[in-house]
Design goal:
This protein is of the alpha/beta class. Helix content is 30%, strand content 26%. The strands form four sheets. An eight-stranded mixed sheet has the order 5-4-1-6-9-10-12-13, with helices on both faces. A hairpin with a 4-residue loop joins strand 12 (189-193) and strand 13. In the N-terminal section; belongs to the HFCD (homo-oligomeric flavin containing Cys decarboxylase) superfamily. In the C-terminal section; belongs to the PPC synthetase family.
């Protein structure tokens, strides 16, 4: 029992991880998206599995294979992702919102392929739902971990996100820093906590970063119990 507790600290816990980009349709052949590859989120799902959790990975479209032993739900849009998360939210102990959710989507989705015109084109965009913020508003026992990919003012923006989304932890990285951007196998993270403290980590593999993220969460959850 002791060994299980020590090496599988997430045994009996349900962890939801969202990963990858979302796609917001313009018409049947076009969409808006972003540079997320899903690597960080997939590493978190794998690490949570290794720590003994029952893992559900809710993923936008990516080119990498999901880790074995996790339940995968594939989604496209921010709204699809929201619905998939809400379907399991009540049973979850930890939610890790690694996904790079689109902030805007076309206001009008065309049923048929849009034909080009001689003139230019402006598309009207509307806001998508902020999934993490909604989770924060409906939070019960869940420990909510958000991400913040920034290019400047990392600390200020990360702390603001912690508050505005009612998250328990924010994992921030400067995507302009070499070794911390989209698509690579490494990351340079700073973890911000609700008590105002933060912890900076050196450059490490996304898998190692994933273990540190979950370890920080486990320590904080232990304190709350
Ligand atoms: N997030 C979300 N739903 C959205 C947008 C973001 O759940 N519609 C989550 C992301 O998964 C991430 C966190 O919120 O965990 C922060 O995302 P980020 O894009 O850094 O922050 P935003 O609040 O969207 O603010 P901005 O893009 O202006 O920095
Ligand atoms: Ca955003």
């Amino acid at each position: 029992y002791f060994i299980r507790e020590k090496h599988k600290p997430l045994a009996g816990k349900k962890v939801i991880v969202t990963a990858g980009p979302t796609r917001e349709a313009v018409d049947p052949v076009r969409f808006f998206t972003n540079r997320s590859t899903g690597k960080m989120g997939y590493a978190v799902a794998e690490a949570a599995r290794d720590l003994g959790a029952d893992v559900e990975l809710i993923s936008g479209p990516v080119a990498i294979d999901p880790p074995s032993g996790v339940t995968i739900k594939n989604v496209e849009s921010a709204e699809d992702m929201f619905e998939a998360v809400m379907a399991s939210y009540s049973e979850a102990d930890i939610i890790v919102k690694t996904a790079a959710v689109a902030d805007y989507r076309p206001k009008l989705v065309h049923d048929q392929k849009m034909k080009k015109q001689d003139s230019g084109l402006s598309l009207e965009l509307e806001r998508t739902r902020d999934i993490l913020k909604t989770l924060g508003e409906r939070k019960e026992q869940q420990f909510l971990i958000g991400f913040a990919a920034e290019t400047n003012n990392l600390e200020m923006y990360a702390k603001r996100k912690l508050e505005s989304k009612n998250a328990d932890m924010i994992v921030a990285n400067n995507v302009k820093q070499t070794g911390a951007g989209f698509g690579g196998d490494t990351n340079i993270i700073t973890i911000f906590h609700r008590d105002g403290s933060h912890k900076e980590f050196n450059k490490m593999s996304k898998k190692e970063a994933a273990f540190h993220i979950l370890t920080e969460a486990i320590e904080r959850m232990g304190e709350a119990e």
